[in-house]
Each structure stands twice: as C-alpha cells, then as structure tokens.
Design brief:
68% of the residues lie in helices and 0% in strands. It is built from 8 helices and no strands. Helix 5 packs parallel to helix 8 and helix 7 runs antiparallel to helix 8. The chain is rod-shaped, with a radius of gyration of 63 Å. The termini are far apart.
C-alpha cells in the first residue's frame, strides 16, 4: 500500500505526454497570435504611409519686401545726400578770399592807432609815411624810394592830384621833416589829425576826378558832320 501511494504521488507531479502536447499547442497558438498581430500592425502602418496626407489650402502671393518697394528711392536719396555732403565739405575746405581793403581804410586805421601824446620824431615819421603810402596807392604814383623833395616834385607834376592838394600834402611832409630834426616847438603839429584831414581832401579829389572822367566818356569826342560832295551836274 505504501508503494502504491508513493507511485501515485510521483505520477501527479510529472506531466504526462498528453499534457505536454497541450502546452506545446498553447504556446504555438500564442506565438501565432503574436505574429498575426505584428503582421496586421505592419500592414496597417504601410497602408497609412502610402496614403498621401491632406494638403493645406494654398497661400496667397508673397507681398514685395520693403527694399523691393523703396530700394531705388533710398539709393537715390543716399547718393544725393553724399553728393551734398561732399560739396559742403569742399566749400568748407576752400581758402577764403582775402578781403582787400581800400587805401583810405588802411590809412585811417593806421593813423587812429598812433598815440596823441607825446608827438615825438617817431610819431611824426610814422604819420608822414602813412600819408605817403596812401597817396602813392590812391593816385597810382610810382612806388620808388624818394626823398621828401623828390616826392613833392612828383606830386606837383601829377595832374590827377591837382595843385591845391599837392601843395597841402607837400607842406605837411616838409613840416614833419623840420620837426623831426629840430628841437620840439611849443605848439604841437597834431600830425595824425592833419593827415586824416588830408586823406579826406584826397578822397574828395578822387571823387571829382572820377566824375569828370565818367562825364567825358559819356559825352564822347565831338565829330563834325561829313561834308557832302558836289553832284556831277554841279561840277
């Protein structure tokens, strides 16, 4: 009895060939099911990739860019601004023309700077030299190194200066020379003031000479009317 019980227990723990066949069959069925599912998924994925996706609606025309719209205007304006800047810079770098002052202005400015007191030989010499330079420039006299006597003779010979103005200028120059080389007298000459007065007289003389020249040019030379020859019958 004990042996039979042990044998029956051993038989219950060890699967029989029939059970083995069932297990193998179930395993094959599961594998087949998994293979079938994998094939189904792959086929469905392949079908889904072969079908084209739905297309989005088309966009409208692309508008032109800002540069395409205004590029020519911007380029022309930039070139114009560069040209204006170059011209302005060129004008700024150009040397300014020298201001040419008249002989009267130069002489008056130089005489005004002379001190009033004391009236020594240096001041008399400067006043006479300023007046001489003015007369030479204003009346277009030859700028040569002349003594006072020679310069006075040239003034007297000039028709443009006139006898009255030449005598007044010559008297002033001689008096300046006498005071430079002699003891200072009690009364001063007021050389700067007298030189300014002589310049005013010279400007009046230049104005009258200019008017006379303009009047002579306007009138023109007088010509006699042509004489008519006698006709052949009168001959």
């Amino acid at each position: 009895m004990e042996k039979n019980n042990q044998q029956s227990t051993f038989n219950a723990q060890r699967p029989t060939p029939r059970c083995r066949r069932r297990l193998i069959g179930c395993w094959k069925l599961n594998v087949g099911c998994w293979v079938f599912l994998l094939l189904g998924f792959s086929l469905s994925a392949q079908v889904s990739t072969n079908t084209p996706p739905a297309l989005a609606p088309p966009y409208g025309d692309i508008p032109p860019t800002f540069w395409e719209q205004h590029g020519t205007t911007i380029l022309a304006g930039s070139l114009l601004m560069a040209a204006l800047a170059a011209v302005s810079l060129w004008k700024m770098l150009q040397p300014k023309p020298a201001v040419i002052l008249s002989p009267e202005i130069l002489a008056r400015a130089a005489l005004t700077k002379l001190p009033r007191q004391p009236e020594d030989g240096k001041q008399l010499s400067e006043a006479s030299q300023i007046l001489r330079r003015y007369v030479i420039t204003a009346f277009e006299l030859p700028a040569a190194e002349l003594t006072t006597t020679e310069f006075c003779a040239a003034l007297a010979a000039s028709e443009r200066i006139g006898g009255e103005l030449a005598a007044a200028v010559s008297s002033f120059l001689r008096e300046c020379d006498e005071r430079k080389f002699s003891p200072p007298p009690a009364a001063t000459l007021n050389a700067a003031t007298r030189a300014l007065e002589l310049i005013s007289l010279a400007e009046q003389r230049l104005l009258s000479v200019g008017r006379a020249s303009a009047r002579a040019g306007f009138d023109g030379p007088s010509t006699a009317p042509p004489r008519l020859d006698a006709s052949p019958a009168q001959k």
